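hey can u check if this looks right to u? its 168 residues, i copy pasted from the old doc so theres a chance i mangled smth
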Amino acid sequence: METNLNEKKNDYKPLGISGLGGWLILVQIGLYGTIIIQLMQLFQDSFTAFDADIWTAFTSKGSDFYHPLWGFIIVFETTFNIAILAFSVYILINFYRKKAFLPRLLIIFYIAIPVVGIIDVVLLYQIPLARELGNGDSLKGIIRSVFTCAIWTAYLLKSERVHNTFVK
C-alpha cells in the first residue's frame, strides 16, 4: 500500500505556473474597462440617438442630415455595444470560474472587435456627412484593436499559465 502512494506521488507532475495572475491581470483589467466603456457609449451615444428629435433628424427624408443608412447604422452600433457588454460580462464570469473554453471565448471576443469595427467604418463611409466629419479616430481604433487581437490571441494560445489555469 505504501509503495502505491509513493508511486502516485512520483507520477504527479506539477502544473507549473497557473492562476489568474501574471499577464492575465491585464486581461481582467481590459474586460472591466470594456464594460465601463460600453456602458458609457450606450448611455452617451447609442441610447441618445433614439431620442425622437435626433432619430428624426437622421432618418427622415426631409432632413438635411438624412441618409438611408443612418437608421441601420444606429441600430447596428447599439446592438453591437449591447452584445459586447453582455459578452464581456459572460467572459468575466467564466474567467473567474476558470472554464476550459474561456481562452476560445476571449479569442472570439478579440477577433469580433476589429471585424465589427471595420464593418462599422465601411458603413459610415458610405454616408457623405460621416465621411466629411471623420477625423481618423475610427481607423486608429481599428488598428489598435487588430494589434490587441494579435497580441492577446498569441498569448492565449501559447501561454503556459493560460493552459494550466483554464482546465475545468
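The chain has eight helices and no strands.
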